[in-house]
Design brief:
Elements: E1 3-4, E2 7-8, H1 32-45, H2 50-62, E3 64-67, H3 75-86, H4 91-97, E4 106-109, H5 114-120, E5 128-131, H6 142-154, E6 159-163, H7 166-170, H8 174-188, E7 192-196, H9 205-217, E8 222-224, H10 236-253, E9 258-260, H11 268-281, E10 294-295, H12 298-312
Helix pairs in contact: 1-10, 2-11, 2-12, 4-12, 6-8, 8-9, 9-10, 10-11
């Protein structure tokens, strides 16, 4: 049992969702300047150095969804990514840190690449996540979006990253959003479902809070900021509002919801900033891969470079590290 924000969350079972409760969020007000100030001070009030920083960076790797979502993806590329997920750091860095084994939190691919990823990761214990529901725009008929979820699950996906219809949020059509996400959760079956809110398209932080709450009420296991394809992806103020919504939902229901920022995060410094956010707002339980994922791939190369410096005392050229 752990506590956060003064509230205990005794239940670590999967979120079953609740009937739509508009009164939980309808009158919510978000002070945007205050949220931006809070986000800006997160990394100035808490700094981590030397071996502490190395430990936080290793944890970022452990919580990373190593991702390839490109139009030119091939099975060979997916196999290379899976090999990197199983051995994310060079051997001399692992030895220097005293680590025997480290893997990323998951691999994230398109549905047609799930089977190749499952095969490549067999025996590693690394889950395969698949985007679905007409990613990234989600502008497909609902029956086709649900069929895509079922296809990915049939291919062996352990996690499904769905996208919501942004228009439902912009029109404040909460029942339509709820019904859509609930149907997607049902189609996901035993696979855990991450609801991508595409926050860069939602216009206001109030909309971000409301969409977060509806997705959780409809049974989302995780809420995720972005597809990585919007003009604006993960930002700290948006993430702050989402984790506050997550905390409020936990207080009301006793269920823990995971959080995944994605897109726009490229550096080891970013990895530290989002972990500091989780620790400050939610506490240590949300620094584990069952409740926190970083949707990034280019970030891994910089983390590896920083850890190489920690171990050897010098920076290696970036070409010396296998690309994620």
């Amino acid at each position: 049992m752990s506590s956060h924000g003064g509230q205990s969350l005794p239940n670590s079972e999967r979120n079953p969702g609740v009937p739509l409760q508009v009164e939980w969020f309808d009158q919510i007000a978000v002070n945007t300047p205050a949220a931006e100030r809070r986000a800006a001070t997160l990394t100035t009030r808490r700094t981590v150095k030397k071996e502490w920083q190395a430990a936080w960076l290793v944890n970022a790797v452990r919580c990373m969804d190593l991702t390839t979502l490109a139009g030119d993806d091939t099975e060979d590329r997916v196999r290379r990514l899976c090999a990197k997920a199983a051995r994310p750091l060079a051997d001399h860095i692992m030895a220097g840190l005293g680590l025997d084994r480290l893997t990323t939190g998951a691999i994230c691919v398109y549905p047609t690449m799930v089977a190749a990823a499952v095969k490549a990761l067999r025996g590693t214990g690394i889950p395969v996540a698949s985007v679905a529901t007409g990613f990234p725009a989600g502008l497909m008929p609902l029956d086709l979006r649900l069929a895509e979820i079922r296809y990915a699950v049939d291919q062996g996906a352990d996690e499904i990253d769905i996208v919501i219809t942004r228009a439902h949020v912009l029109d404040a059509n909460w029942s339509a959003l709820y019904d859509e996400v609930a149907a997607m959760r049902e189609a996901s079956g035993a696979a855990h479902m991450k609801a991508i809110l595409a926050t860069g398209d939602l216009r206001t932080l109030r909309n971000v809070y409301k969409a977060s709450m509806v997705a959780m009420q409809a049974g989302a296991d995780f809420i995720k900021t972005s597809t990585g394809k919007e003009g604006v992806n993960a930002t700290l103020p948006v993430s702050l509002v989402m984790v506050r919504a997550l905390r409020d939902y936990g207080t009301r229901t006793g269920f823990r919801i995971g959080f995944k920022p994605a897109g726009g995060m490229k550096t080891a410094k970013d990895a530290l900033a989002w972990q500091i956010l989780m620790k400050e707002e939610l506490g240590n339980p949300w620094l584990r891969p069952d409740l926190f994922r970083l949707g990034a791939s280019s970030m891994l190369a910089d983390i590896e470079r920083q850890l190489d410096h920690h171990v050897t005392g010098r920076y290696a050229a970036s070409f010396r590290h296998a690309l994620a």
